[in-house]
């Protein structure tokens, strides 16, 4: 089914009786038979094991995703975006707080002048993920069982909420530092609360409410505001780079590796946050006029440009100021003061605030589209999938992310949010690469069992060798034998995959060099995950436990009922 056919097959809102958008009955939230009453819910719980097994093995079809589930929204989203809009939406979404708030920290603590390589490595990993996201956005597929889809969806929603909360806190910090030399100046300290949750941030809440309110008003309007702000931001970034190279001193780049190769990779895992946001733009295929052309050009083009910009900005900073003198909290603003251009720090502050604001705007659009798709499949109540007939936007989905992120931003500090966000994001990108391989090599009722086992064996070798190399590195094992063995098995797994027959080829646009590029994305994301501390793992596991609890008691029963709502009752 090509993109044109998909669009023509989309349901028309006129085919069903008009209903008020503003409604909130139990039937809107839990329309499935399992939740009809307490007796039916108890009966559903008694079949949890069999339903979980079914959801582990079953996969949704393209037709179901493209036609049936879109009916849950009742109205169509407006097709109003082009590749030009997507480039600037990607720029506005990605070039946010990360480059301004994280760079100084990583230059001082982990990388020094080699932060340039950290950004290049993270950029390469992000580009590989862009390829995978682009194929999914163009083809609009589903890969993996329902349970796997829920784990991915849960992490995507976690990334959306935590990322928005982190941006809100960053905006508040930068705004406070412009008024007074104290990033916590506008926050309320509550000493009885534990550290990391004792600085209440009402400014972050207000910023999130305003940004999401604009996003709810219309996609094209948000895109236009982002375009204007991003052009201004691009001009300031060019100014920063030019001044850095003109006023900078090459001697500041020595030593280039003050913390060794370990510092480069540790910084890569952290600065990855600076590249997040493009996945939010990838969710807008439904509102793109020609997704087969516009999405590849918009995403790949913008990410290539952003990687170059980040590397040049990092190099400019480390040339202006010795890495030992870089300010941790406001690196670029303080750097201009240190070279005698105090007035320029206000330009940098404006650019940083603009970047965070547009990241919030575009993030609001993408987060709501993710949430809408999750709600369409009934993983969360389908009420959140409803699209407003006038604005063409999913207002309820936007409100859900807004309220959750505002609550978290009010209490939670940036360091707590950043660790959870990085882990969640890297996990999602790894799952996307795995899902792409599954889509290419496995088709239900077509792939023979022997071929499926071969594929799973190859995938196990690729992931296992990637984990092995990561463990060796973080155990400080620097002998070449272990890495050679790991690389040998990684190459062997991919060679075996390359020899297997692909069961599905992309109809419109596809990732080149499959399985090599997706496998490289898997390996790089696993390696960067290993660079995060134990605390990040524990926080992520707690969040995952909450998701699993919800799935076992609600999600599995709702999605099971939807999957078999047109089947005989005995199913």
Structure description:
- The chain has a two-stranded antiparallel sheet with strand order 1-2.
- By secondary structure, it is mainly α.
- The protein has 23 helices and two strands.
- Helices cover 68% and strands 1% of the residues.
- The protein is globular.
- The chain has helices spanning 3-9, 26-29, 38-46, 48-57, 62-68, 83-94, 98-101, 103-111, 115-139, 146-179, 202-217, 219-247, 260-271, 278-282, 291-320, 331-338, 344-376, 395-411, 414-441, 449-474, 480-499, 516-530, 534-563, and strands spanning 188-189, 199-200.
* Strands, count: 2
Please, what is the average pLDDT? 82
- Helicity, in percent? 55-70%
Estimate the strand proportion: under 5%
Which structural class should the secondary elements be placed in? mainly alpha
State the distance separating the first and last CA atoms: 29 Å
Summarize the entry for a quick read.
The protein has 571 residues and is mostly helical. It has helices at residues 3-9, 26-29, 38-46, 48-57, 62-68, 83-94, 98-101, 103-111, 115-139, 146-179, 202-217, 219-247, 260-271, 278-282, 291-320, 331-338, 344-376, 395-411, 414-441, 449-474, 480-499, 516-530, 534-563, and strands at residues 188-189, 199-200. It is globular.
Strand and helix map with partners:
Elements: H1 3-9, H2 26-29, H3 38-46, H4 48-57, H5 62-68, H6 83-94, H7 98-101, H8 103-111, H9 115-139, H10 146-179, E1 188-189, E2 199-200, H11 202-217, H12 219-247, H13 260-271, H14 278-282, H15 291-320, H16 331-338, H17 344-376, H18 395-411, H19 414-441, H20 449-474, H21 480-499, H22 516-530, H23 534-563
Helix pairs in contact: 4-23, 6-12, 6-15, 6-17, 8-13, 9-13, 9-15, 9-19, 9-22, 10-11, 10-17, 10-18, 10-19, 10-23, 11-17, 11-18, 12-15, 12-17, 16-17, 17-18, 19-22, 19-23, 20-21, 20-22
């Amino acid at each position: 089914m090509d993109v044109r056919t998909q669009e023509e097959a989309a349901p028309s809102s006129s085919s069903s009786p008009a209903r008020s958008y503003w409604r909130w009955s139990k039937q809107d939230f839990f329309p499935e038979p399992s939740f009809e009453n307490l007796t039916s819910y108890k009966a559903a719980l008694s079949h949890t094991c069999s339903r979980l097994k079914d959801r582990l093995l079953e996969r949704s079809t393209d037709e179901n995703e493209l036609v049936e589930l879109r009916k849950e929204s009742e109205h169509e989203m407006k097709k109003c975006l082009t590749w030009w809009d997507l480039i600037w939406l990607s720029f506005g979404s990605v070039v946010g707080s990360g480059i301004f708030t994280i760079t100084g920290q990583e230059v001082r603590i982990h990388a020094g002048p080699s932060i340039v390589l950290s950004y290049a490595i993270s950029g390469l990993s992000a580009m590989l993920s862009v390829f995978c996201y682009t194929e999914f956005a163009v083809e609009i597929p589903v890969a993996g069982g329902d349970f796997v889809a829920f784990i991915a969806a849960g992490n995507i929603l976690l990334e959306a909420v935590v990322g928005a909360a982190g941006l809100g806190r960053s905006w508040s910090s930068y705004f406070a530092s412009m008024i007074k030399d104290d990033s916590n100046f506008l926050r309320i300290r509550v000493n009885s609360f534990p550290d990391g949750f004792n600085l209440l941030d009402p400014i972050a809440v207000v910023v999130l409410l305003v940004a999401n309110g604009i996003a709810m008003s219309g996609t094209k309007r948000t895109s236009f505001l982002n375009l204007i702000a991003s052009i201004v931001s691009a001009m300031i970034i060019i100014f920063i780079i030019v001044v850095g190279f003109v006023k900078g001193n090459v001697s500041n780049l020595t030593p280039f590796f003050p913390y060794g190769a370990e510092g480069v990779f540790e910084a890569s895992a952290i600065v990855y946050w600076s590249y997040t946001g493009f996945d939010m733009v990838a969710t807008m295929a439904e509102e793109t006029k020609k997704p087969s052309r516009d999405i590849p050009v918009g995403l790949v083009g913008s990410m290539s440009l952003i990687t170059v910009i980040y590397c040049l900005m990092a190099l400019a900073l480390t040339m202006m100021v010795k890495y030992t003198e870089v300010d941790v909290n406001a690196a670029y603003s303080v750097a201009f003061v240190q070279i005698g251009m105090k007035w320029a720090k206000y330009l940098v502050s404006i650019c940083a605030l603009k970047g965070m604001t547009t990241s919030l705007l575009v993030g609001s659009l993408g987060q709501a589209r993710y949430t809408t798709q999750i709600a369409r499949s009934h993983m969360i109540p389908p009420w959140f999938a409803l699209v407003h007939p006038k604005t063409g936007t999913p207002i309820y989905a936007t409100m859900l992310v807004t309220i959750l992120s505002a609550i978290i931003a009010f209490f939670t500090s940036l360091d707590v949010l950043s660790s959870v966000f990085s882990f969640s994001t890297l996990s999602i990108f790894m799952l996307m690469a795995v899902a792409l391989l599954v889509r290419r090599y496995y088709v239900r009722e077509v792939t023979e069992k022997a071929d499926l086992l071969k594929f799973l064996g190859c995938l196990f070798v690729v992931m296992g060798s990637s984990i092995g190399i990561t463990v060796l590195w973080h155990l400080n094992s620097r002998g070449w034998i272990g890495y050679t063995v790991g690389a040998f098995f990684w190459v062997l797994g991919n060679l075996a995959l390359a020899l297997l027959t692909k069961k599905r080829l992309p109809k419109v646009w596809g990732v080149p060099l499959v399985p090599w590029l997706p496998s490289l994305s898997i390996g790089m994301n696993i390696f960067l995950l290993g660079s995060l501390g134990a605390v990040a793992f524990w926080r992520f596991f707690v969040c995952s436990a909450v998701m699993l609890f919800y799935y076992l008691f609600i999600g599995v029963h709702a999605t099971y009922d939807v999957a078999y709502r047109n089947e005989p009752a005995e199913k």
